[in-house]
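Inputs:
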Amino acid sequence: MFELDRSQYPQKKPDGTLDIDLSSGKYLKLWQGPQHPGITGNMAIELTVCGDEVVEGKTHVGYLHRGFEKLMERRTFMQCFPIVCRICVPEPDFNEYCYAAAVEELAGLEVPEMANWIRTLILEMGRINSYLMYLGGQAGALGLGVIGQWTTYVRDLMLDRFEELTGARIYHMFILPGGVRDRLPEGFAGRMEKALQEIESTLGDVEKVMFHNAVFKKRTVGVGVIEAGWVDSYGITGPNARAAGVAKDVRKDQPYLVYPELDFELVTGKDSDIYARADVRRRDLLLSVDLIRQILAKMPKTGEVMAKLPNVLHWKIPRGETYVRGECSRGEYGYYLVTDGSGYPRRVNVRGPSYTHSIALFERMVINANISDVAALLVSLHTYPPEIER
Amino acid sequence: MIRDVLSPFTAWKNLFREPVTIKDPLNERPGSARYRGFHQNDLDKCIGCGTCETICQNGAIDMLPVDGVPAKLGDSGLRPRIDYGRCCWCALCVDVCMTGSLTMSNEYKWIESDPDKYLYMPGVDKKHWDNAELGYRRHEERHLSPGDRVDMPELHAEERIGSFIEMVKGYDIAQAQLEADRCVSCGLCIASCPAHMAIPDYIKAVRNGDYERGVQLLYETNPFSQVCGRVCTHCCESACAARHEGDPIAIRWLKRHIIDQVPQERILQLIGKPAAPTGKKVAIVGAGPAGLTTAFDLARLGHAVTVFEAQAAGGGMTRYGIPEYRLPYDALDRDIAVITAMGVEIKYNHRVGTDISMQQLETDYDAVVLAIGLHQGRSTRIPGSDHPQVRKAVDLLRQITTGEKIDVPKSMVVIGGGNVAMDIARSMARLQMQQYGEIRVTLTALEDKAHFLADPVEVKESIEEQINILDSRGPQACVIDADGKLLGLKTWKVLSIFDEDRRFAPKYDPADEQIHEGKMIVEAIGQMADVSLLGDALTEKLEWNRGRIQIDPNGRTSEHWLWSAGDCVKGPDVINAVADGHRVATSIHCVLTQQEAKI
């Protein structure tokens, strides 16, 4: 499956390796990153170009490695909770949710219903943040700087809501094993509605300036196509799969939290190019806006937010293993947790969607791409390096 | 297509909009009400338990001493210092704070040129956010640790009042583990315990179900765990961090739980054999907790120890002063059996001074320890207190223990508000119940209810057992009729107990006079040591301090061969006696083995 469909350059040597002779003057090695505006975060791409055509691309990661999974093996179950959010900066809440849900499952804890509603709310708010950041990045990669300014502004409105709900703007640390830290503050729904309206209005502008833009279309339509057949073989999930017409979404496929009680249809596309993926994300963002409205209308007004926990200073969890997953803005997010009856996790494995998208898939897609499209292509896969190198 | 060319130009509409950015620092933007900003610490509420340090996964918190914050009972004197180079503002420290002293303000800006300034002691290093009202606060109810103490199963008042059956049933394993789970292992209790028992460690042993380890830990510091697990005055619980928001950890009951779980034979195996004989001989006068602790320690070190006990059984005040419903005799016997298994010889019914003299002990032994307790009751010396039906509480308690026949009166009055007064009142109430089917015991105390000397639990249980407790009543006379029959006690209302210099000088209101009916009056106002066994010559030679034998910090008297320990020189409870016993044993061992005393 990794046999690539290459152009005539470069030829293969009899042993199967590529015949790239850098001294021939025909090829050029080009590093994009780790400091480069056309890269998503702390990673680098080593490109071999022939003229303006990429013939070989290799991703280099490790600039952000902090060894979270290993760190957690030396921390108690509650002490892991402030760490996990750092595995994905722009959308940290999935780490908190998946970790908490895994711990709760193995510890046999029943989470109060109120906490599940608030968790769903937070996850959708996080999705909006993440998509807003993506839209700015996708437009920016093609020179449309103004979109990033607008989306950053409305993202800040959402950060304000996060701040009043969770007490922090970026690392919310609100979903902890056992429930959530607190209820919604007084008047939260009203202020949220205002923010949602502002976001919708801004998205209208974004649609006019970015999606109905001859330049943007010229650069993105038909570029960076993911074939529907790759979805399973590459493990592609999320909007990258949905834009290819594959209706994959954990929220529908294996509903968690309160998603069964919410009314929504999956957003899918069909052209599977950069434009289609951006459009799927824009519409998915509007779906999240709608889901937040539904949640705020349907959620109970009172109730406990925390299950009864044992003393977390010496909390031991019986032997067991589980895999908990959820649908984040980039695809399936999962936590595989193994416990051995001690006070520490035996093994935590984080499945971030960026890993498959930005390494295996990207290296496949960059072949034969035009060098000026590489940044837009990478951004269109919507990857966040910290979750590649947990 | 033409639309796609023109549409982007709609962006120009923003040309005339005001910027949305906040011009910091010109416009202050306060953090939200829940903002997890810089820490605040209420130094008066903080007890330095260090739970914040334990939970901090960044290792950002260190507990350090602070000028002007002395260590005291239940307060380590340490306060958290937070390294803002490591802190991630997760607020777990706030969530687990045992007193709610640690909170967070909504302040988030702090500019400093010296990085060391970010080693910050909230509350100590004064900051403008110290009194900020907004910011992250913990819930009223702690979410990350269980709050309520596991109730100890006990006999109801109706069940227990007719007999001397032990009223506390003890935790089962599930209850004990739940209770042990509440402990945060701060260790404030260790400092408060006179014997410095390894409390957090043995509670951990309960949590882990490792009772054998628990027994080993108990015996490292206390050979009277059966006794202390039942009747200890538990200073530890008044130092416990958990008491600030709820009940302290039931440390005493957990100790009892450990010792209850391990069979006696296994306890003996776990303690191990004594050291090789040293050839030194030590005599101990009195087989109470102090004497037997000394004996236990010295015997384990290889010294030959003989204990002389005037009574027919060991335990001293724990046996002859504490009623059986609080401390069953078989529990006490189990503790003593472990001690004798170490090779300690106890000579019962040997009264020193009568059966053998102190001079003889001095000659026959390398060291002698005096641990004779306080077996002589004090008298109020009010008119009529020499009447035969006016008794001392200690004498009566001893009679109950030895099973001597007591002429139980139908009604009686107890003078005193301490634990001994409660003990005798409750014991006599049981005897009245057995004999007459009804209880008529009146207890009069000088103190008002808020300042009772007795343990609040004792007072509560006494009231449950129908004891009529009267506070602020001063005894004036025992009322005796013309035939010499005791009618009752006359008391006046107490106006104050101490004078301005805190000296004992009670003032009464004679207008408020009451006669409490009783065919017996029991004085329970304190005890003293019976030192007649010393003999005149030795009494003359020894140095005294306000009626008590003068001892040095190691328990040694002015005579080089004589040490003294326990209630007779220090007081006033079992655990202090045990601690005293260890101290004296260490001192004797050092002297006998020609070492310098290191204490």
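The longest helix of chain A spans residues 113-140. Flag for discussion at group meeting.
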